[in-house]
Amino acid sequence: MMQAPKEKTERADVCDSCKKKKEITSHCDVCKQSYCEICTQKHNTNGATKEHLQASSGGTTIQESYNEQCRNVRGEYRATHHKHTPTTVPGDDKGAACTLGMVILPDGRLVVIDNRHKSLKLFNSDRYTYAFRRNFTHEPRGIAAISGKEIAITFADKHVVRMFLVQQGSFEDTGKFKLEEKPFSISYSEGNEKSLAIEVGEGKYGAIIITNLSGVVLKEISGYTRRFGIFTGNTIRLVHDQGKQLLYIADLTKDCVNCVDYDGAIVWKVRVKSPRGIHHHGNTLFIASKSKNEIYQMKTELGADELPIVYLLLDSEDGIIEPRFLSYNAQAKRLAVEVAGNLIQTYNCSNRN
Question: Is residue 265 part of a domain?
């Protein structure tokens, strides 16, 4: 396991790899050597040593949980199937949809991205019947609820993020900003300021950027030498906590969820089979496991010696079949989960307290 040095000295030390006097940013417990920032990156990407690294340069110690999902211990939230008819995503389209995300508004209405038909679709909260849509010339890729009835949408091919206000019969434009790289997953959080976390770029150009609502970049976390996910536009799901300056990243390729700080260091990771959807609210993370046909919940605020543990929330007996995207709204007390391709199940979901 790769860790930051226990003590940071004022003077420059000698890197065990390049033998130059530089600031030491990491230590490998396997190699028993210390490295500068450049050599840390080489160590992290070299085929013979990259598995030694769990945290990136300057990272904190990882807490890694291999615990099975707890079925006999209750989590913070409980969920029951909503009595109303589930929603089929196509709406007024005849062909199958391609859902790439959704949000539930405070009044219970559901907004869904249909990537295949290049549209946003709204479904009423009574029986989740189709209401209206907004068509685009390019494919929408990611969606986040900002606050109240405002949402943010990414358009990868246009390198743009657009904001909309959901009215009674339309999606009203409220703003947009351009990005240098293609944007994919997106998350909203309020802390010291309102911010968006956006997955941008692919391959060695992949990164996560933190921006304000005008698109000004507040922080950039390069994905080139990181171990928290592979940037392809389809293998990362993310949410963030601006107040704690933490990201929660579902790594689809390595079957895990990583907690990552704003410097890119992994704080902890938890093993989850085929994590496809992720949502953060308060001190709880909701996670969808496609291959296990289950929805989990877990605490994100951990004590000094506490490991992340996932608790079962819903499973196949609750209609969870190959779940992918999910969304929760505390005000509406409603959880929505996309299952079996084009079906969205809705659940009454609230805190036990």
Answer: yes
